[in-house]
Amino acid sequence: MALYSAAAAVLEGLERGDGGIKSLVYNSRFPHVRQLYALVSETLRYSPVLEKLLAGAALLQAEKKLPPQLAKVLVYDLLFGKGLKCGGRWKALARRHRARLEAELARLKVQQKVSRNEDLLAPAQAASPGASQVPRYVRVNTLKTCVDDVIDFFKRQGYSYLGKATKVEELRALSGKKFLLDLHLPELLVFPPQTDFHDNLLYTSGHIILQDKASCLPAFLLDPAAGSHVIDACAAPGNKTSHLAAILKNKGQIFAFDMDTKRLATMNTMLMRAGVTSFQLAQQDFLTVDPRDPKYSKVTHILLDPSCSGSGMVTRLPGQEAAPSAERLRALAGFQRKALGHALRFPALRRLVYSTCSLHREENEDVVQAVLRERDSAFRLVSALPSWPCRGLAAFPGAERCLRASPADTLTQGFFVAVLEPCGEEAAAPSSLPVAVEENPEHSEGTAPGAAPKKRKRKKQRVK
């Protein structure tokens, strides 16, 4: 049963936009990574078929306690895989509905005039326009090292460093073992697509974080000063939390919330490996957190990246990118509005970043517009990274202050980011002037595993 639970957790993470399939599988702590990856991949491949089978057999209506992603995994292995390998109540449940599921599968084959299971699949297509051109982004973990030392480390591994990029086209042209420093984020290295670092010493030691550029934008734009108290409202799997800690230089406090026990355990391991110390994890729904609790009286910054449709995740496999139903979009948008409105109730709040990995206006501009109306002009949108080429959709006056990301235009996952501040607060300079932080010597502390120190007063830890 551990295999199916792990696979369902990966599918849920993909749906939330927590990362790509490889990173979620490798971070799952499941001992048999290849087995888990194969099961997740095949379940995703058959996802449109599985959804039709689940709907036709009314399985989720009959078994209300069965999580949808777990249902997909069980039905895949029952009908298309090697047979259920689990025991207990889930196996009994699946077998109880086996006749209905097989009848629905037969009906689907007759309807589509095919005889083999494989023929139910749509012709293989690219996962998403531009998916193959999204580079591999590597965020240097400045809690343990610095950009110069990581560059030196990769050069000793045979990579050629081409310097700082000046335009997106340079990222698009990367190939072989060449890499660049990103043109917007000062601690982000860019490698050709499909470059794999999961077994690299820098990754396993926590000196680098494999994180898409768009996913780095929320913490970068929140930009809390060292010593700040920060809330990461929907924190797992922890990449953004570790980024916040690096920006804070482990000074101050991060309150991180998530509802899933296993995800929190995985996140705790990841944060410890990354050298994060100033954090408190809580298994709690952010909506139940009391903004007036004295514990959060000093919270000045909030990062809110709530559950979303994940429609911007170009690393998904074929069949995974089906558009969410109108009903699901309404439900997601309703939750997102509640979460954003709740976050704006914290009394000391000075800056909030709202982000999703969704392409849908309903989860992005419409949510921001609705909450700003509800707050009756108590908050305003700040222009997020004005040099960024893709802006928010023209859903309301000022929506262009938000930013969007896409594989075609910015060579990233699809993403949306809005920065909000109380009216009367001065706009924070780092979001408008990202270049200003690039030369900050405080971002150069540390050393990569095996690299020589760069004339600093104290040495960071090394990996032998």
Features:
17 helices, alpha/beta, eight-stranded mixed sheet, acetylation, globular, 464 residues, rRNA processing, five-stranded mixed sheet, coiled coil, SAM-dependent_MTases_sf, 28S rRNA (cytosine-C(5))-methyltransferase, Rossmann fold, 13 strands, 36% helix
Short structural summary:
The protein has 464 residues and is α/β, with parallel strands linked by helices. 36% of the residues lie in helices and 14% in strands. It folds into two domains: 1-120, no CATH class; 125-425, Rossmann fold, CATH 3.40.50.
Describe the structure.
- There is one protein chain.
- It is built from 17 helices and 13 strands.
- The chain has two domains: 1-120, no CATH class; 125-425, Vaccinia Virus protein VP39 (Rossmann fold), CATH 3.40.50.150.
- Helix 15 (326-343) packs across helix 16.
- 36% of the residues lie in helices and 14% in strands.
- The longest helix has 18 residues, at 326-343.
- Strand 3 (178-181) and strand 4 form a beta hairpin.
- By secondary structure, the protein is α/β, with parallel strands linked by helices.
Q: Tell me the overall shape.
A: globular
According to CATH, what is the class of the largest domain? Alpha Beta
Put simply, the count of helices is: 17
Number of domains: 2
The CATH H-level superfamily of the largest domain is Vaccinia Virus protein VP39
Mean pLDDT over the residues? 85
Tell me what portion of residues adopts beta-strand conformation: 5-15%
Structural class: alpha/beta
Please give the alpha-carbon distance between the first and last residues: 38 Å
